[in-house]
Design a protein that fits this description.
Elements: H1 6-11, E1 35-39, H2 44-49, H3 51-61, E2 65-68, E3 71-72, E4 75-76, H4 81-90, E5 94-99, E6 107-108, E7 113-114, H5 116-127, E8 132-135, H6 146-164, E9 169-173, H7 177-180, E10 182-183, E11 186-187, H8 188-194, E12 201-206, H9 209-212, H10 217-223, E13 230-233, E14 235-238, E15 245-248, H11 257-268, E16 272-275, H12 285-298
Length: 301
């Protein structure tokens, strides 16, 4: 997800096995699983108006998995965790991942522990059967200095430990600033990668957001292998006013997303591929994500 979600994000039963071992058969002989999901932010207005009706359309297209982008007051799109789990189960859908911002307000410095609000977030994610709890934003107050960011990377690692107790992994999802901003002479993205433990923190690489900053997913996958259990599959085009970029139908843009998804399976350890499209070029969001799924299936996903 990209920075247009900034304002949206601000408002916005434990698994039996460890998240690192979903099913050994899925990864045998180097034949990693290919699980396709949809980030529901792609159909955000539809979800706002009619979440149940929109989910029915998503299921009818052939999607089997969704990733949420709305968790407010312990509710997903207005449903409690147990209610939303039933809604998804009834439609044959699973929610393997979800986006909820881990902010500095979720860590009690004096107690050296997470706040109840964040513990409830983890509890509800586990109830939903999630494998990943993904934070899709870094408050810029945490980027004022290298020491400040390094301190919060320790919170990331501790969140990884917390999630692991419920059979999940903690993840961070990039925007563009991680590749364009430097602290101590290093890209913020490199700082995150070097100061989070691979067994505790997964990076959900958004291959479109990074393109805005001039970074290429293939370079990152080669530089940091086996850190990307999940990625956001996206393609980008120049905006009509030629000022910046926006997402588009997969394969219609500048990224060559199939090359990235194939390499992410080979080098990144990726098994969960989350489709996200945030701009639609005169198509409806529902029609776009339907086409995106068809295209990924044609690639063998």
């Amino acid at each position: 997800m990209k920075t247009s979600r900034r304002s949206f994000l601000k408002k916005s039963a434990a698994a039996m096995a460890a998240a690192s071992v979903l099913s050994p058969s899925l990864f045998a002989s180097g034949n990693a699983a290919k699980v396709v999901s949809i980030q529901l932010y792609s159909v955000r207005e539809d979800m706002k108006k009619d979440p149940l009706g929109t989910l029915k359309k998503i299921a009818a297209m052939g999607y089997k998995n969704v990733e949420h982008a709305n968790y407010v007051n312990r509710k997903f799109y207005g449903y409690t965790a147990k209610e939303f789990l039933k809604v998804l189960n009834d439609l044959g859908l699973k929610m393997l991942s979800g986006h909820t911002v881990l902010g500095k307000n979720h860590w009690d410095v004096k107690k050296k522990d997470f706040t109840d609000a964040w513990k409830y977030t983890i509890e509800d994610a586990a109830t939903m059967g999630q494998k990943f709890v993904v934070s899709p934003w870094l408050d810029h107050s945490l980027l004022k200095s290298l020491d400040t960011l390094l301190g919060f990377m320790e919170v990331f690692n501790k969140c990884g430990e917390l999630c692991r107790k419920s059979g999940m992994k903690f993840g961070y999802h990039n925007h563009d600033f991680e590749f364009s901003m430097k602290l101590g002479g290093q890209d913020v993205f490199d700082i995150i990668m070097k100061n989070t433990d691979a067994d505790k923190v997964v990076i959900q690489l958004d291959i479109g957001n990074m393109y805005i900053a001039g970074a290429k997913a293939v370079d990152i996958l080669n530089k940091y292998p086996a850190r990307f259990d999940t990625i956001h599959v996206k393609d980008m085009i120049k905006k009509s006013d030629d000022k910046g970029y926006e997402s588009t139908i997969l394969g219609k843009g500048l990224i060559d997303p199939r090359k990235v998804t194939d390499l992410s399976r080979e080098k990144g350890g990726t098994w969960l591929f989350v489709i996200e499209q945030e701009a639609y070029q005169d198509m409806t969001p529902v029609d776009c994500v339907k086409e995106d799924l068809k295209i990924m299936k044609s690639w063998g996903y």
